Amino acid sequence: MKLSSYASVLAALASLSESAPTEPVARDLPLVQSNQLRRVLLRSELLKKGNILQDFAYATEGRNRYIGTPGHNSTVNYLVETLDALNYYDIEVQPFTVPSASSTLSVSGAEYESAPMTFTPAGAIVAAPVVLVANIGCDAADYPAELAGNIALISRGTCTFAAKATFAKAAGAIGTIIYNNVEGLLQGTLGGEGDYAPTVGISLADGQTIVAALGSGTVTADLDVDLSEILTYNVLATTKGGDQNNILAVGAHTDSVQAGPGINDNGSGSIGILEVAIKLASFSTNNAIRFGWWSGEEEGLLGAEHYVSTLSQEEADKIRLYINFDMIASPNFVYEIYDGDGSAFNLTGPPGSAEVEKLWEDFYRGEVDIPTKPTEFDGRSDYGPFLDAGIAAGGLTSGADGVKTAQEAEWYGGTEGIIYDPNYHTARDTVENLNVGVWIQLTKGIAHAVATYGRSFETLPAKVKRSERSEKRAVSAGFQRKGGKLVY
């Protein structure tokens, strides 16, 4: 089904519901087993599908799969058509609108590429002086009195973009420009609504050019941030068979940033769960499996937030566990498991989160002899809204903008001292720059969890309905979702 408007989505959904049988698939399929499901996963299929997504991006102006673009809508169409052909899933396409922003920036008459921060307010500023903020703008004392009525220029680093934008506005700035501290255009999020002036990111090179110009005298800038809305779509596929009151939810996001095709971030996760979903169609399950492909992650986890917020309490209580896969083919990779038991980062997920972490620790230690390390439940991907709702969660990742340590280089190879994906949020996030070895291994980790929980949830704590819970969730007090991955 082709997605171009809300009306066409509704028509296509009606067509799907008329053509697809609603009764469960026949139970003569063999019950899923981890080794059998893992065995049929192929690197060649991951690469084939990665090239399909890259072709969608390259057929789009800007060569990306950003929400609302032909590249992203083609991704959604491809998922729906592929899943519908299996006749194994009940498919739902969930439309919703996402706030969107565009910006223009000129400094001393020269045009500069800029990217509005998610959650920035709109605004037009004409010929305002640019004032350099001291250090990296993580302390109110870094913001000089001269900022009042002017535009702040700040280096990325250490504290959140939101903190910098908040300090700038408090100092009287009418606009904020944050320049990158690594190569490439800075595309980030403020993480939520706040008291900000219009805020954009620019590249390191452009930031350095403006800083150098400030050394020679006054520099003025025109900054315009415009806000609008984009219609976009989640895709949900739930097995027709299995206990519909006990669901394993499996998710990844489909959208890229505007800077590039997003084949690791997050074509890799989207394709990983798609390939598992395709191969699962040859098996039966005791529990239902629901695969979710979320849109709007790069804008602040908006697709996953929309899905979770529209669940009734009864439907949310049916989800025993949510597992998330975001960036699973990083070139300078690590093997990271979300710290569900809180032993590494003192931030515990709801009951069941510790158990899925242990499932993968045992799998990688025992089955494939690969060391793993915990990563923090810091709210930088689509598990965040599930945690907020008290739903157990976990996930695997090969890393984003964390810097590889000497210990990690010893374990996995690669280059110490650089980030896990040097192509993160750039035009170089392509099929050619993926690590296919880690991609297939983490996809097998997805399959192991799907097969295990597709058979039984016996290793998870007994299900407790939200209506029966007290203040038991350790995460509720300390978890702060940051909305999108790039917040610093």
Walkthrough of the structure:
The protein is an alpha/beta fold and 488 residues long. The chain has 2 domains: 322 residues, Aminopeptidase (3-Layer(aba) Sandwich); 127 residues, Glucose Oxidase, domain 1. Strands 1, 2, 3, 4, 5, 6, 7, 8, 9, 10, 11, 12, 13 and 14 form a 14-stranded mixed β-sheet that branches. It holds the Pfam family Peptidase_M28. It comes from Phialocephala subalpina. Its EC number is 3.4.-.-. It is an enzyme of class 3 (hydrolase).
Enter the CATH topology name of the largest domain. Aminopeptidase
- Considering the protein shown, what is the CATH homologous superfamily of the largest domain? Zn peptidases
Provide the low-confidence segments as ranges.
1-11, 17-26, 469-485
Strand content: 15-25%
Family: Belongs to the peptidase M28 family. M28A subfamily. Belongs to the peptidase M28 family. M28B subfamily.
Cofactor: Zn(2+)
Keywords: Aminopeptidase, Hydrolase, Metal-binding, Protease, Signal, Zinc
Protein name: Peptide hydrolase
Structure at a glance:
It is an enzyme of class 3 (hydrolase). The protein is an alpha/beta fold.
Keywords:
488 residues; alpha/beta; Aminopeptidase; Glucose Oxidase, domain 1; 2 domains; elongated; disordered N terminus; hydrolase; Peptidase_M28; metalloexopeptidase activity
SSE order and pairing:
Elements: H1 6-19, H2 34-39, H3 43-58, H4 70-84, E1 89-107, E2 110-112, E3 115-116, E4 123-132, E5 151-155, H5 161-170, E6 175-179, E7 199-202, H6 204-214, E8 220-239, E9 243-253, H7 263-280, E10 287-294, H8 302-309, H9 313-318, E11 319-325, E12 336-338, H10 353-367, E13 373-375, H11 384-388, E14 393-397, H12 406-412, H13 436-455, H14 474-478
Parallel strand pairs: 4-5, 5-6, 6-7, 9-10, 9-11, 11-14, 12-13
Antiparallel strand pairs: 1-2, 1-8, 3-7, 4-8, 8-10, 12-14
Helix pairs in contact: 3-4, 3-7, 7-13
